[in-house]
Write a structure and sequence with these properties.
52% of the residues lie in helices and 7% in strands. The chain is mainly alpha-helical and 202 residues long. It folds into 2 domains: 40 residues, no CATH class; 116 residues, no CATH class. The longest helix has 52 residues.
Length: 202
């Protein structure tokens, strides 16, 4: 024989039960024996709150996943923009310095000369794309002598002039006071300006 009991609310749903006779085995977690649970969820203030909390609990992982995907997408776009800017800037430096000797060792120009930084891009982020900081350099100096800094510093003032050289030193001295934050727009502007400079050599 099926035991029946009146539907009545418990706890946050107290007083909301419909009063109908229901199987005593019918039980809603936290609300006791209550057959009109859906009605309580949709039509009572407490039920709506409980429903909203349940929805948020389900949605939260999805929202966090979407945010993570969006952040990763933005990071990848920025990495691509940085790489594209590097390619454009280095191509310009090689074009600008065609025919010039190695900035460090004065070796005669070769087609395989690279764009070598005076202040390393990894350590001086604000000077990564500074054109006075990048010059044609032989692979030996750039790759195997870590830029051959001492000789680079001797020849650089003659290449860009004393005033620009001292300005570069000043910029390097304050580099660590700033945290350079690149964004898509300022990288796009750099590429546009360098492409204009490149057109003067074509």
């Amino acid at each position: 024989m099926i035991k029946e009991k009146k539907c009545k609310g418990h706890g946050v749903a107290k007083g909301f039960g419909c009063g109908k006779m229901i199987d005593v085995k019918f039980r809603v977690y936290g609300l006791g024996k209550m057959c009109c649970y859906p009605d309580w969820l949709l039509n009572s203030d407490n039920g709506k709150i409980k429903m909203q909390k349940a929805i948020l609990k389900v949605q939260k992982p999805r929202i966090e996943t979407n945010k993570a995907l969006e952040l990763r997408k933005e990071e990848n776009a920025l990495k691509q923009a940085l790489n594209n800017t590097k390619l454009v800037v280095h191509a310009y430096v090689k074009l600008r310095d065609t025919g010039k000797t190695c900035i460090s060792c004065d070796a005669p120009y070769q087609n395989h000369f690279q764009a070598g930084h005076f202040y390393p891009a990894g350590s001086y982020e604000t000077l990564r794309f500074n054109l006075d900081n990048i010059h044609g350099q032989c692979p030996q100096c750039n790759l195997y002598l870590n830029g051959n800094f001492d000789n680079y510093s001797l020849r650089l003032p003659k290449r860009i002039g004393k005033e620009r050289y001292e300005k570069l030193l000043e910029l390097a001295s304050i580099d660590k006071q700033f945290s350079k934050v690149w964004n898509i727009e300022n990288l796009k502007e750099i590429r546009a300006n360098v492409k204009i400079l490149s057109s003067n050599f074509l």
